[in-house]
Specification:
By secondary structure, this protein is mostly helical. Helix content is 78%, strand content 0%. It contains 23 helices and no strands. Helix 4 packs antiparallel against helix 14.
Length: 427
């Protein structure tokens, strides 16, 4: 009965389209006030503990780096390099779209920054070249999912802090799934381009490839700073974010693309975006404590174990629930509401926590591609000037590719999730 009341109240607030932080906070406060004798000072303590983390400092820094990328010519340099690399293939601009997202994913850590940066440059170019706006929007929105899988990843930072897993190990575990998503989306783009008769944009030129590569080095240094520093043991996740932010500030000042006034504006924007995330994480910590106090996860263990003891079937059930939940919940809210309920069951079934984490990240990414709550979709609809329904229909083949990679993550964890971390001695 208690579970029904808690989730019923929370669901009511969400259906009323109230802010997620408000829904979580009021639900937690109502439970503590009317169902327990816990002093309300605990509310303040849990709210503060929720964001009292050195690792979380990486969130505003990575968001800042993504915003700064949008305000310099670094995004265009990456696009030019991707064009030289894959622009000669059928549907060249679609390929460029996906490959650029893969490069950008190694810098920004968020799908929204990826969508805004890549879409702002590629979408007008694709439409001018005769690509259908629906296909243009679909490939842009879908490829932005790579931004939360290939490290660095703001959602992985949030997950690692919330669940208590090593963020650097999560980053490296996401490397191979992210690359596989990019390959799968390139294949889907190629098939659709052949069917629709989209041609190549350029002829392959080793000279042009070398030239654009050299010009893009200032942008490509950023993933090396972040991943190289983390994998080499030089930086923690937060220190890597700080080093990347320092580098891009220095680049902007030296090239005079970003005077101090613009840097301050970017810092202000990143602070506002980070504040929204931090408020949710703070309230989420309170809700997580409420779940633990009410023993809600334990109440669900036995019913699930009577349903199945097969870990793979369990992961598919969880994936279906998360994907459905992702249609109306923001990823961060899904993390704090749904995930704590399944963690004890996953542990009982012997599922490795990093394996479970990658399944969650994949479902998080798929959830960003499904209306009505899909941040990447809204940005893309605006840029491509199409409606949500048209974009969603065109996006189905790409969502299918994401589900195919999810299947590989579920059934081939030794290869997809553990191979690189184990090779680097991180597991």
């Amino acid at each position: 009965m208690l579970v029904v009341l808690i989730f019923g109240l929370m669901g009511l607030f969400i259906m009323l389209n109230l802010p997620v932080a408000f829904a979580l906070g009021v639900t937690s406060l109502a439970f503590l006030t009317f169902a327990t004798n816990v002093p309300l000072i605990v509310v303040v303590q849990r709210l503060l503990l929720g964001v009292d983390s050195f690792t979380l400092l990486g969130v505003p820094l990575f968001i800042f780096v993504g915003i700064m990328m949008n305000r310099t010519n670094l995004s265009q340099k990456i696009v030019d390099f991707a064009m030289a690399l894959v622009g000669h293939m059928k549907g060249g601009l679609a390929m460029v779209n996906v490959v650029t997202s893969m490069f950008f994913a190694g810098i920004s850590g968020t799908s929204m920054a990826d969508t805004a940066a890549v879409g702002g440059v590629i979408i007008p170019a694709m439409i001018d070249k005769g690509y259908k706006p629906s296909f243009t929007g679909a490939v842009t929105a879908a490829s932005s999912t790579i931004g939360i899988i290939i490290p660095p990843s703001v959602p992985m930072i949030l997950y690692g802090v919330f669940v208590g897993l090593s963020v650097p190990t999560l980053f490296i575990a996401g490397l191979l799934p992210g690359i596989m998503i990019g390959v799968a989306m390139c294949l889907v783009s190629l098939i659709i381009s052949i069917k629709e008769g989209y041609g190549s944009e350029t002829k392959f030129s080793l000279k042009t490839l070398a030239k654009t590569f050299i010009e893009s080095i200032p942008a490509l240094i950023l993933p090396l700073i972040i991943l190289g520093g983390i994998m080499g043991g030089v930086f923690t996740t937060t220190e890597a974010a700080g080093a990347a932010a320092s580098y891009i500030i220095l680049y902007g000042l030296v090239t005079r693309e970003l005077p101090p006034k613009k840097i301050f504006a970017a810092a202000k924007e990143s602070a506002l975006l980070s504040g929204q995330v931090m408020i949710i994480i703070s309230v989420a910590n309170l809700l997580g404590w409420v779940f633990a106090y009410a023993k809600i996860p334990q109440l669900l263990v036995n019913p699930f174990l009577t349903l199945t003891t097969n870990p793979y079937l369990f992961l598919w059930i969880v994936s279906a629930i998360l994907i459905v939940a992702g249609t109306f919940l923001h990823g961060t809210a899904m993390l704090v509401i749904v995930i704590p309920l399944f963690l004890p069951i996953a542990a009982k079934l012997g599922i490795h926590p990093f394996h479970f984490a990658m399944v969650v990240m994949m479902c998080w990414g798929i959830g960003q591609q499904t209306p009505p709550v899909g941040s990447a979709l809204y940005i893309t609809c605006t840029l491509a000037k199409i409606d949500m329904w048209t974009l969603t229909k065109a996006n189905m083949p790409f969502v299918g590719s994401l589900i195919a990679i999810l299947a590989m993550v579920i059934h081939l964890p030794d290869f997809m999730v553990f191979a690189i971390p184990r090779a680097l001695g991180m597991l």
